[in-house]
Amino acid sequence: MNKKVTTVCPYCGVGCGLEVSPPSSGKTLNCDSLGNPIWKVMGDRTHPSSLGKVCVKGATVTEAMHKSRLEYPLYRETLEQEFRQISWEEAYTLIVDRINTVRDTMGVDGICIYGSGQFQTEDYYIAQKLMKGCLGTNNFDANSRLCMSSAVSGYIGSFGSDGPPCTYEDLELTDCAFLVGTNTAECHPIVFNRFRAYHKKNDHVKLIVVDPRGTATAEVADLHLAINPGTDIDLFNGIAYLLLQWNLLDHDFIDHHTNNFTQFKEVILQYPPHIVAEKCGISIEHLETCARYWAESEKVLSLWSMGLNQSSEGTAKVRGLINLHLMTGKIGKEGSGAFSLTGQPNAMGGREAGGLAQLLPGYRSVLNPQHRQEVEQLWGLPLGSIDDKVGKTVWEMITGLETEEVGLFWIAATNPVVSMPDLERTKKALLKSPFTVYQEAYYPTETSHYAHLLLPGAQWSEKAGTMTNSERVVTYCPQFNPAQTQAKPDWEIFAEVGRRLGFEQYFNFENASQVYREFVSLTKNRPCDVSGLSHELLAEYGAIQWPFPEGSNPEHRYGRRLYTDLKFHTDNGKANFSAYHSRGLAEPPNPDYPFVLTVGRLYGHWHTMTRTGRIDKIVKMHPEPFIEIHPKDAQQLNLQDNDFVKVESIRGEGKFKVKITRSISPKTVFVPMHWGFLWADNAEANSLTHSEACPISKQPELKACAVKIMKDEE
User: Fold this and answer.
1) Which of 22, 48, 178, 668 is 20–30 Å from 714 (CA)?
2) CA distance linking residue 18 with residue 8, whole number of Å
3) Helix, strand, coil proportions of the chain in percent (round to 5)?
4) Cβ atoms within 10 A of the Cβ of 24, count?
5) Shortest CA distance to 100 belongs to which of 487, 503, 506, 383?
């Protein structure tokens, strides 16, 4: 391809539009460190989500297109052996034979696939059809389990359906932005920059940031609540208590559009300001200021990310935040609503396609008999083909390896040997795997060390497909770069395995456009209806926000808020209050492990550095891992900046360079989660974290664990 193309950034869930131009043949070429010409990247000014803006990750994304690529299938019989190159024919035979063996000896529930928010929707969809439809097991989970599943269960519990109700336009229409558990300035910078420009120009607009760290987001807040880790529900219930006491509720909305307010009221009456302030570690004055900002603002927009989701009470936290919108009627209107910021570029598309162990395409549930029957009919499968049990979550896949209940573990486009909790246990489980397939664009990664069969996956620039961002905007991503040697799109790999298993009639697709056409038909009349979309329409008109039913006008492609009619996807059309008491951290600090470790992302790096670790500019920006520690704690431990410390939990340990800063609360420390063993020695944050998870969303509490810290004298 020799002309400029429009696409979407493959990093976070903001979904920024990009214009990518080929290296210019008549000018001096800009090349990467290997001498490969670099495609030029600029922001797409016509994209409704980013309006031409782009962060450093998006601006440099093409610099890693040719570096450290997995070029052809590799295989080894045991993990002690070296890999040898094999053909795709041999690779497919190995997978099909293994699937058949597991089906015959263990049953289909011994087969597991762990996918990724890096997938395009077409990849997700074909994997669901193969696993949940044809094979009859719901053992497909994705790394959205680690970042977004609490948002999914929170939305479903409160509104009856998944789906963020807001748009990014609301950032520039609100009177008060309430940011909790999100360092938006670094992790979703284009979203934050849109709001910050508006915030600067409008003195009446308030920014409240709730975070134990004094992040770049908190630095510009009108009110920063540095609450103790794990006290979010206390805070939300405390705000609700004050709103109730001040009688600043929307009684009409509560009476006509909600359920369960009485039960909620009984709970929040137990959260008076003096109790909440003490639990949260903030002043009563700040608590009251926060409640007044919320009450006095006509329009309130709340935004959250991993700080709420990655918790053993993640669903309760999300629903606790939504409660505040329900009691004040600040939902379904411009500038207002509860808005989850998605972590990955297509985690939303994965949710639409059924890409978690409890889901089916079109925002359906495997537990719902009508939903199962609808999908079976649309796929042309015999009734009863889809299992009525929730499949294994990714952590249950890991424990299934321990108990020898998993006979085939197929990982695609993610790097669990860095991102999973309790990493030492995860690694030991992977060593027990009888057969691990790893489908990835890059090599080596940490996970490739634990695989038997490596399959080269085509990455974002090398295949056509769609992605959905945090505000439900669907963008078409054309192929603009030839696939590296033998790399194949993920959906093609899944489809070919399906055909070779004898399911030819269900995988009769010639291209991704046909896959997408079938997928959108399964969303018709569902909350996430995209039945009016196609690759061709998206290529012609640009990105389009759902819902977009068949027959919709593509000229009106943006500005679709949910619940503007105040009708929700529950049995009686009303939103549900929830009534949760705070349980606190699953692993609170104790005399032996007196610090709380929290982990997170940095501005330049992306997740486990599979791509950004190969981009020189970003590596220079963030050259090494570190630990943030408060001066008071540093003094007690006799630490100076740039000293090294050993950090231990009951599960593992790490060694980090000290960064003393008042931006972290005393007795809380912060470590970035990006570095695996390929990029640094003994600096894996998730060697320390635990696997305790929300009982509803099954999302692990990656955000907090108890640790002890010792000065490293070596």
Assistant:
1) 668
2) 5
3) 35, 20, 50
4) 11
5) 503
Which residue from 633, 662, 378, 677 is spatially nearest to 521, judged by alpha carbons? 378
Q: What is the pLDDT of residues 149-188, one digit of tens each?
A: 999 999 999 999 999 999 999 999 999 999 999 999 999 9
Contact (CB, 8 A) for 340 and 305: yes
Nearest C-alpha neighbor of 628 from the set 673, 674, 668, 659 = 659
Residue ranges of the chain with pLDDT lower than 70? 1-2, 25-28
Give the whole-angstrom CA distance, residue 566 versus residue 329: 10
The residue length of the chain stands at 714
What angle, 0 to 180 degrees and rounded to 10, lies between the N-to-C axes of helices 261-268 and 232-245?
100
pTM of the full structure: 0.97
Structure tokens at 520: 């959108």
pLDDT tens track for 580-634: 999 999 999 999 999 999 999 999 999 999 999 999 999 999 999 999 999 999 9
Strands 705-711 and 644-648: antiparallel
DSSP code per residue over 393-448 = -HHHHHHHHHTT--SEEEEES--HHHHSSSHHHHHHHHHT-S-EEEEESBSS-TGG
Task: Please name the residues in contact with 514: beta carbons below 8 A apart, sequence gap of 6 or more.
Answer: none
CA distances 580 to 210, 325, 697, Å, are 19, 16, 15
599 and 593 Cβ atoms separated by less than 8 Å: no
Q: Give the residues across from 149 on adjacent strands.
A: none
Candidates 397, 464, 463; CA nearest to 432 is 397
Residue 323: φ, ψ to 5°: -50, -40
Amino acid at 390: V
Distance, CA of 164 to CA of 162 (rounded, Å): 7
Question: Would you call 39 helix, strand, or coil by DSSP?
Answer: coil
